[in-house]
Amino acid sequence: MRDVMRWKNAAVLALAILAVGCSSNSKKELPPAELPDITEEVTLQKNWSRSVGDGQGETYNLLVPAVDGDVIYAGDVNGRVMAIDRFSGDVKWKQDLELPVSGAVGVGYGLVMVGTLKGEVVALDASSGEERWRARVNGEVLAPPANNGDVVVVQTQNDTLFGFDAATGSQRWIYENTPAVLTLRGTGSPVVTNNLVVAGLSTGKVLALDIQRGIPVWEQRVAVPQGRSELDRVVDIDGGLLLSGGNLYVVTYQGRVAALDLESGRVLWQREASSYAGVAQGFGNVYVSLANGTVEGVDERSASALWSNDALARRQLSAPEVFSSYVAVGDFEGYLHLLSQVDGHFVGRVKIDGDGLRARPLVIGDWLYAFGNGGELVGLTIR
């Protein structure tokens, strides 16, 4: 039953599980909430827009752009990778790999890295797009590879972690985990530092390895599987990990949102939550896109909810991102919503891509970048 989680269309719940051999649920699904009318307090200006191939494609992918310096890099499902001036939208280079890309893109230290459904990892030169090296792993790569300048780390769908030499692509180490019996379709990108690589697993655990040798440093369980069926016991960490200062933020599906100490894995605080998208952090608060479409602000000092906005129920939200004094989040119809960090009320909205907006918004300074499911990459500022 492994890897049989799939997504339904926009007419049903944001997250739906198709499990072979499991009984179907005859309960009628509620439709996505209609968008409420809002009083626009903030105007998002589209400064440029660029098409990046076929975007996420027809199946569920979570391809995200990444910025390095003045360049934003993005890739599509068919292996088109583009380097774009992040201020003007001008294309610097384009590379067509003609591969089924499912993990994109990771950037840093002169490399642009992607992973594929066939277990390939490709590293390109960030300045020219020329291929530097290729390597193979033992499963689908559904999240961007990560890089600290010395080691490239790749996490596969089956929770195996690989370390490759950043210069040559030769394998340095491998660390295998036993994944959950039933998992969501996806993984988060590992977090890498000079000394550690930290990954969220399908079992609801966070694992830290020595990045040079691939040996465990600490392990922390964030969520405990509960319930009678395998569906009830799914506690994947799919939204990725967020590192801010010495704190590591994580949220699981059907589990908890928590802050961990990076060096020891000690739990600093936690509260019940269910999310497949991820978290954002800013101004002493953590923001979560819950699986039911609610956006929640959590006070780090008390681990209590500051506010909760359920007006986007069942709209298949992206992970949130902090943008100026606001929280930005996308939905299945391609709208980008801005919410106040203070109380969660809507302050602005703009349509990005009619095929939906699944990828986390990317914020660099006073610029926000949104990558629509259909391949529309947009650079926005507040007017």
Automatic annotation (TrEMBL):
Membrane topology, record value: Lipid-anchor
Keyword Repressor attached: no
Primary subcellular site in the record, as a coarse category: membrane
Pyrrolo-quinoline quinone repeat domain residues: 78-309
Any Gene Ontology biological process: Gram-negative-bacterium-type cell outer membrane assembly
UniProt xrefs under Pfam families: PQQ_2
The keyword Electron transport appears for this protein: no
Compartments, as annotated in UniProt: Cell outer membrane
Alphabetically ordered keywords of this record: Cell outer membrane, Lipoprotein, Membrane, Palmitate, Signal
Cellular component terms (Gene Ontology): cell outer membrane
Domain of life: Bacteria
Family: Belongs to the BamB family.
Subunit structure: Part of the Bam complex.
Function: Part of the outer membrane protein assembly complex, which is involved in assembly and insertion of beta-barrel proteins into the outer membrane.
Name the record gives this protein: Outer membrane protein assembly factor BamB
Organism: Metapseudomonas furukawaii
Gene designation per UniProt: bamB
